[in-house]
Amino acid sequence: MAEHVFIILKPDALERGLVGVLLSRLENKGYLIERLEMTRLDPFRLRKLYAHIADKPFYSDVESYMTSGPVVTGALSGFRVGKGVRQIVGATDPLRAAPGSIRGDYGRAWEDGNMRNLIHASDSPENAEREISLWFGA
Ligand code: ADP
């Protein structure tokens, strides 16, 4: 069975006109876009996605960031796609993400005291299936 990954192009990716660039990076590696949808995130579903950080002091900023505008959600497939996409995405903090990664090349953070890192990608095959069914119901 093909492995999947769930991605969200966050509101800053859309505001900055980077949707095409970011999807190209993932497609160029050879991953297949299976689902893609422009939508808005609601705080309830976001909290399920981010249960592991919901009690952090910065969560209220994450919630207002992620619900501040439209996002693009998607599911990609490919051989070891989860590990591969996380590598292309880079470390959480854009100031620490390696050059060449999406967050390292395009992410901007802390200018206004907040982290803006453009893209979410599930961190394990189990979470990918959970997140894909949370969003796409399949
Ligand atoms: P990742 O997105 O790299 O898997 P996490 O799951 O730890 O990282 O965090 C989820 C999201 O929460 C991050 O992508 C980022 O948008 C936000 N976040 C994480 N840590 C912080 C922080 N210290 N300050 C502000 N926002 C953060």
UniProtKB/TrEMBL annotation:
InterPro entries: NDK-like_dom, NDK-like_dom_sf, Nucleoside_diP_kinase, Nucleoside_diP_kinase_AS. Its cofactor is Mg(2+). It catalyses: a 2'-deoxyribonucleoside 5'-diphosphate + ATP = a 2'-deoxyribonucleoside 5'-triphosphate + ADP. Keywords: ATP-binding, Kinase, Magnesium, Metal-binding, Nucleotide metabolism, Nucleotide-binding, Transferase. Its EC number is 2.7.4.6. It comes from the Bacteria. The active site is at H120. ATP binds at K10, F58, R86, T92, R103, N117. GO terms for biological process: CTP biosynthetic process; GTP biosynthetic process; UTP biosynthetic process. One of its GO terms (molecular function) is metal ion binding. Residues 2-138 form the Nucleoside diphosphate kinase-like domain. Belongs to the NDK family. This is Nucleoside diphosphate kinase. It comes from Actinobaculum massiliense ACS-171-V-Col2.
